[in-house]
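Exercise 3.2. Students should predict the tertiary structure of the chain below and write it as C-alpha coordinates, then compare their answer with the key that follows.

Predict this chain's 3D structure.
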Amino acid sequence: MVARWVHAHSAFCAGPFVKVNCAAIPGSLLESELFGYEKGAFTGAYASKPGRVEMAHKGTLFLDEIAELDLTLQSKLLHFLQDGRFSRIGDEVERSVETRLICSSNRNLEQEIEAQRFRSDPRSTQKIPTPCHALLLMHNRIQVVFCLPLPTCQKFPLG
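Answer key:
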Protein backbone atom coordinates (compact mmCIF):
# COMPACT_ATOMS: atom_id res chain seq x y z
CA MET A 1 0.00 0.00 0.00
CA VAL A 2 1.49 3.28 -1.18
CA ALA A 3 -0.05 5.33 1.63
CA ARG A 4 1.62 3.28 4.37
CA TRP A 5 4.95 3.43 2.53
CA VAL A 6 4.74 7.24 2.21
CA HIS A 7 3.90 7.47 5.93
CA ALA A 8 6.73 5.14 6.95
CA HIS A 9 9.30 7.09 4.91
CA SER A 10 8.34 10.59 5.99
CA ALA A 11 8.86 13.08 8.76
CA PHE A 12 5.44 11.97 10.07
CA CYS A 13 6.45 8.31 10.57
CA ALA A 14 6.55 8.59 14.38
CA GLY A 15 2.89 9.68 14.44
CA PRO A 16 -0.24 7.62 13.86
CA PHE A 17 -1.40 6.28 10.50
CA VAL A 18 -5.19 6.75 10.39
CA LYS A 19 -7.14 5.20 7.52
CA VAL A 20 -10.70 6.08 6.53
CA ASN A 21 -12.51 4.06 3.86
CA CYS A 22 -14.88 6.77 2.57
CA ALA A 23 -16.84 4.25 0.48
CA ALA A 24 -17.65 2.06 3.50
CA ILE A 25 -19.14 4.79 5.72
CA PRO A 26 -22.54 6.27 4.83
CA GLY A 27 -22.37 9.98 3.94
CA SER A 28 -24.51 10.97 6.91
CA LEU A 29 -21.99 9.43 9.33
CA LEU A 30 -18.79 10.34 7.52
CA GLU A 31 -18.64 13.94 8.78
CA SER A 32 -18.78 12.85 12.42
CA GLU A 33 -16.25 10.10 11.70
CA LEU A 34 -13.81 12.58 10.13
CA PHE A 35 -14.27 15.62 12.38
CA GLY A 36 -15.73 14.15 15.58
CA TYR A 37 -18.57 15.48 17.70
CA GLU A 38 -19.40 16.89 21.10
CA LYS A 39 -21.71 15.40 23.71
CA GLY A 40 -25.33 16.29 22.86
CA ALA A 41 -24.58 17.34 19.26
CA PHE A 42 -27.22 14.88 18.03
CA THR A 43 -29.38 12.03 19.29
CA GLY A 44 -27.10 9.29 20.58
CA ALA A 45 -24.08 11.56 21.16
CA TYR A 46 -23.76 10.68 24.84
CA ALA A 47 -20.07 11.61 25.01
CA SER A 48 -17.60 13.69 23.03
CA LYS A 49 -15.64 11.82 20.38
CA PRO A 50 -12.57 12.98 18.47
CA GLY A 51 -12.66 12.42 14.73
CA ARG A 52 -10.10 10.76 12.50
CA VAL A 53 -8.63 14.16 11.52
CA GLU A 54 -7.85 14.86 15.17
CA MET A 55 -6.54 11.34 15.73
CA ALA A 56 -4.05 11.84 12.87
CA HIS A 57 -2.33 14.82 14.54
CA LYS A 58 1.44 14.65 13.89
CA GLY A 59 0.82 11.64 11.64
CA THR A 60 -0.89 10.64 8.40
CA LEU A 61 -4.59 10.64 7.52
CA PHE A 62 -5.39 8.37 4.57
CA LEU A 63 -8.75 8.99 2.87
CA ASP A 64 -9.35 5.98 0.65
CA GLU A 65 -11.92 6.53 -2.12
CA ILE A 66 -12.02 10.32 -1.74
CA ALA A 67 -14.44 10.59 -4.70
CA GLU A 68 -17.15 9.06 -2.49
CA LEU A 69 -17.39 12.23 -0.36
CA ASP A 70 -20.51 14.28 -1.08
CA LEU A 71 -20.05 17.88 -2.19
CA THR A 72 -20.94 19.32 1.23
CA LEU A 73 -18.30 17.22 2.99
CA GLN A 74 -15.78 18.03 0.25
CA SER A 75 -16.36 21.70 1.08
CA LYS A 76 -15.71 21.15 4.80
CA LEU A 77 -12.58 19.17 3.96
CA LEU A 78 -11.41 22.00 1.70
CA HIS A 79 -11.79 24.52 4.55
CA PHE A 80 -9.69 22.21 6.72
CA LEU A 81 -7.04 21.99 4.00
CA GLN A 82 -6.91 25.75 3.61
CA ASP A 83 -6.10 26.59 7.22
CA GLY A 84 -5.58 23.34 9.13
CA ARG A 85 -8.48 24.13 11.45
CA PHE A 86 -11.82 22.41 12.00
CA SER A 87 -14.63 22.11 14.53
CA ARG A 88 -16.23 18.99 15.89
CA ILE A 89 -19.97 18.72 15.20
CA GLY A 90 -21.78 20.71 17.89
CA ASP A 91 -18.66 22.54 19.04
CA GLU A 92 -17.82 26.22 18.76
CA VAL A 93 -14.11 25.66 19.43
CA GLU A 94 -11.82 25.50 16.41
CA ARG A 95 -9.07 22.93 16.65
CA SER A 96 -5.91 22.72 14.61
CA VAL A 97 -3.78 19.77 13.61
CA GLU A 98 -0.61 19.14 11.68
CA THR A 99 -0.94 16.08 9.49
CA ARG A 100 -0.13 14.59 6.14
CA LEU A 101 -3.27 13.88 4.15
CA ILE A 102 -3.14 11.13 1.55
CA CYS A 103 -6.12 10.67 -0.75
CA SER A 104 -6.81 7.90 -3.23
CA SER A 105 -9.52 7.18 -5.71
CA ASN A 106 -10.24 4.51 -8.29
CA ARG A 107 -12.26 7.06 -10.27
CA ASN A 108 -11.00 9.51 -12.85
CA LEU A 109 -11.31 12.78 -10.92
CA GLU A 110 -11.25 14.86 -14.12
CA GLN A 111 -14.45 13.06 -15.21
CA GLU A 112 -15.93 13.42 -11.73
CA ILE A 113 -15.25 17.17 -11.86
CA GLU A 114 -16.85 17.47 -15.30
CA ALA A 115 -19.90 15.58 -14.03
CA GLN A 116 -19.97 17.95 -11.03
CA ARG A 117 -19.61 15.11 -8.52
CA PHE A 118 -16.20 16.28 -7.31
CA ARG A 119 -15.16 19.85 -6.54
CA SER A 120 -12.48 21.29 -8.74
CA ASP A 121 -11.15 23.79 -6.20
CA PRO A 122 -9.06 21.38 -4.07
CA ARG A 123 -7.07 20.62 -7.20
CA SER A 124 -7.03 24.11 -8.69
CA THR A 125 -6.09 25.88 -5.47
CA GLN A 126 -3.38 23.31 -4.86
CA LYS A 127 -2.12 23.50 -8.47
CA ILE A 128 -2.06 19.74 -8.80
CA PRO A 129 -0.80 18.83 -12.26
CA THR A 130 -2.66 16.42 -14.49
CA PRO A 131 -2.01 13.62 -14.92
CA CYS A 132 -0.15 12.52 -11.81
CA HIS A 133 0.19 9.28 -9.93
CA ALA A 134 1.50 10.53 -6.61
CA LEU A 135 2.09 14.07 -5.54
CA LEU A 136 3.11 15.59 -2.26
CA LEU A 137 2.50 19.24 -1.61
CA MET A 138 2.52 21.45 1.41
CA HIS A 139 -0.41 23.77 2.06
CA ASN A 140 -0.13 25.73 5.29
CA ARG A 141 0.70 23.01 7.82
CA ILE A 142 -1.06 20.19 5.99
CA GLN A 143 0.88 17.95 3.65
CA VAL A 144 -1.34 16.50 0.93
CA VAL A 145 -0.64 13.48 -1.27
CA PHE A 146 -2.99 12.53 -4.07
CA CYS A 147 -2.66 8.96 -5.39
CA LEU A 148 -4.67 8.68 -8.56
CA PRO A 149 -5.01 5.75 -10.98
CA LEU A 150 -3.67 7.61 -14.00
CA PRO A 151 -1.34 6.12 -16.63
CA THR A 152 1.64 8.47 -16.32
CA CYS A 153 3.61 9.43 -13.28
CA GLN A 154 5.32 12.63 -12.26
CA LYS A 155 7.80 12.25 -9.44
CA PHE A 156 7.94 14.64 -6.52
CA PRO A 157 10.01 14.42 -3.31
CA LEU A 158 8.30 12.70 -0.39
CA GLY A 159 10.00 14.87 2.27
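Discussion points: The chain has one domain: 2-147. Helices lie at 2-8, 27-35, 52-55, 71-83, 109-114, 121-126.
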